Amino acid sequence: MDSTVWALLLSAVSISFIHTASGPDHYLPFIVISKSKKWSGMKTAVLTVVCGLGHVLSSLILGFIGVFLGWQLNKISWFQDIRGNFSGWALLIFGGIYLIYGLFQAIRNKPHKHFDVMGDDVYVYEHNHSEIVMPQKRIKVTPLVLFMIFVMGPSEPLIPLLFYSGVKHSMSEIAVLVTSFTVTTVLTMLGMVLLGRYGYSTLFNTEKLERYMGVVSGAVVTVCGVGMVFLGW
């Protein structure tokens, strides 16, 4: 693989790992439900993988919008002469915008999910810090609810990476990005769930890292764009 494919591959792996590992909602509900319902390790793993694939699917739908836009641009004759520089600059600009957006989200009091255990049941609710949540606003977590939570939470930074490959009309790059993103996301979720289920703590405080997930993801895309535009990746 050339340097461009390696850069895109590392960016996709980094973004999918950070997005998954930094959010407790990617693994905490599986750990809590597994313990409260006394599920087997196999049943827990299967639900985790299914929800992980649903999460990937929603992210890829957004990403393929980027591929479609890139392919449509290739049909314009005047675009052929500038597409190399354009795609790199688009990657860089999107990364910068997402980085700024991530900083804004980290500063403001962004709503976030929490999971509560009440007897043998688990409930999910969303709130801001210091906000009191009434019991009726809590939703009982079932496997279907978990699946829907993950389908509704895509990873937006995948869009510019697939847009870049779409502009280049490179099916090999698209295949590398999709495969690496899928495998990394599902394995990270499964690893975090199994670690928590069997009593091992993670190596870092993911709740604090979650607040800066947008910043880190935006920085990864920005660095990739800088490499494409100025370093000849």
From TrEMBL:
Keywords: Membrane, Transmembrane, Transmembrane helix. The keyword Acyltransferase does not apply. The keyword Cytoplasm does not apply. The chain crosses the membrane at residues 6-24, 45-71, 86-104, 144-163, 175-200, 212-231. This is Urease accessory protein UreH-like transmembrane domain-containing protein.
